[in-house]
Amino acid sequence: MSSTTSPISGTFLTRLARTLPARARRAAASGRDAGASALEWAIIAAVVVVAASVIGGAIYKIVQTKSAALETCATVAVGDACAGGKTSGS
Questions:
Q1: Residue 82 β-bridge partners
Q2: What pLDDT digit, counting tens, does each position of 21-64 carry?
Q3: Which of 33, 32, 38, 59 lies closest to 46 in space, CA to CA?
Q4: Residue 87: left if φ>0, alpha if ψ -120 to 50, beta else—which one?
Q5: CB-CB contact of 51 with 58 (8 Å)
Q6: How far apart are CA 5 and CA 7, in angstroms?
């Protein structure tokens, strides 16, 4: 594909081709700790996402339950029993 039809210019690709091998050599020379650290952060991020999803799901269920109870009580006349036998006057 020519550079005129490609959204990425040829100079960018040339610079990238020069830069990537140097970065790879530096990463290899620094040891494997950087990769392990990145993996640890990825695992921590995954745990946080799962925890947030579980907490969000629990909150959603509580809100849905309360919303259904409120909707039921909204159709009951004032003074009549609603949501477990409670009256609105007590």
A1: 86
A2: 888 777 777 666 656 687 888 899 999 999 999 999 999 999 99
A3: 38
A4: beta
A5: no
A6: 7
List the Cα angle 40/44/46 in 5-degree steps. Answer: 115
Task: Give every CB contact of residue 9 below 8 A, 6+ residues apart in sequence.
Answer: 3
- 73 and 64 Cβ atoms separated by less than 8 Å: no
pLDDT in tens, 2-30: 444 455 567 877 787 788 888 877 777 76
10, 3 in Cβ contact below 8 A?
Answer: yes
Q: Distance (Å, rounded) from C-alpha 28 to C-alpha 35?
A: 10
